[in-house]
């Protein structure tokens, strides 16, 4: 298998694994996280990420607290971050924080924050 391109930009989407959402529900929450974080990123990050093909990595945490902690760390590092709060129309209670979108940002910066997290 040939080596792929080297990406300079990516997004990390972090979902809560403790909520026991269906696969479709998780996908929708990750989709929200992509858009919300993208809208908060600066134009350099958006353009760089978009021109490379929009690399995304989906990760998991076991609860709400790690999402808030990651959000604070990301914002302190100058990385766009956005929490997803569910409307409660289907599987979970209204207002539940389900996911966190980070970036687009430089790969190295995101790896410092999320390198210890497991893939979904």
Offer a few descriptive terms.
120 residues; 5-stranded mixed β-sheet; alpha+beta; Bit1
Task: Describe the structure in your own words.
The chain is α+β, with helices and mostly antiparallel strands and 120 residues long. It has one domain (9-114): 3-Layer(aba) Sandwich (Bit1), CATH 3.40.1490. Helices cover 41% and strands 26% of the residues. A five-stranded mixed beta sheet has the order 3-4-1-2-5. The longest helix has 18 residues, at 23-40. The two termini are 24 Å apart.
Set out the fold topology.
Layout lengths: L8 E8 L6 H18 L2 H10 L3 E6 L2 H13 L4 E5 L11 E10 H8 L3 E2 L1
Parallel strand pairs: 1-2
Antiparallel strand pairs: 1-4, 2-5, 3-4
Low-confidence stretches: none
**Shape, principal axes of CA atoms:** globular
Q: Please give the CATH architecture.
A: 3-Layer(aba) Sandwich
At CATH level 3, the topology is Bit1
Helix count?
4
| CATH secondary-structure class | Alpha Beta
Structural class: alpha+beta
Rg over CA atoms:
14 Å
CATH superfamily: Bit1
Tell me, rounded to a whole number, the average pLDDT.
96
Indicate the proportion of strand residues. Answer: 25-35%
């Amino acid at each position: 298998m040939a080596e792929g391109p080297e990406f300079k930009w990516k997004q990390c989407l972090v979902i809560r694994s403790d909520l026991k959402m269906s696969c479709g529900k998780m996908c929708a929450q990750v989709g929200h996280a992509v858009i919300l974080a993208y809208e908060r990123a600066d134009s350099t990050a958006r353009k760089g990420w978009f021109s490379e093909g929009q690399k995304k990595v989906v990760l998991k945490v076991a609860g709400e607290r790690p999402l808030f902690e990651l959000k604070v760390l990301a914002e302190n590092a100058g990385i766009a971050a956005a929490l997803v709060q569910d409307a409660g129309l289907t599987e979970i209670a209204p207002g539940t924080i389900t996911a966190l979108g980070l970036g687009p940002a430089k790969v190295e910066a995101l790896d410092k924050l999320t390198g210890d997290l497991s893939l979904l």
